[in-house]
Amino acid sequence: MTYDRSKTIGRVAFLAHCDVIRDLLEKGHRNKEVFAELEAKLTISYSQFNRYVLRYITGEQNNGHQRKRTAQISPPTPYPAPTPAPSGEARNSDAQVFKTGQKRAQFKHDPNSGNTRDDLI
């Protein structure tokens, strides 16, 4: 597979100056200062420079906000789990079966609840 030269030339330039960049960073220079000094030689953007510093110099994994999730975590449901119908009985697929004496939680709004506090607005 051949690569477009324009896509790899920035990485090659960065790797060619990797020792200089590492030395400057170890001396305490900020990334922005190092990039400003080598910008003409690198021909890459500042954000790409930072990605290369993470990948090739510090060795840290970039666990940024755009990573893909491996598993979706679902929040717990407020209702109890439905109990299965005893064998031999037909069960309505639309209705959930709850234990005896349990009701579904419901919200009822009462606009005339008597709350006259003005600081809630």
UniProtKB/TrEMBL annotation:
InterPro entries: DUF5338 (IPR035225). Residues 75-85 have a biased composition (Pro residues). It comes from the Bacteria. Residues 107-121 have a biased composition (Basic and acidic residues). Residues 58-121 are annotated as: Disordered. Pfam families: DUF5338. This is Uncharacterized protein. It comes from Pseudomonas fragi.
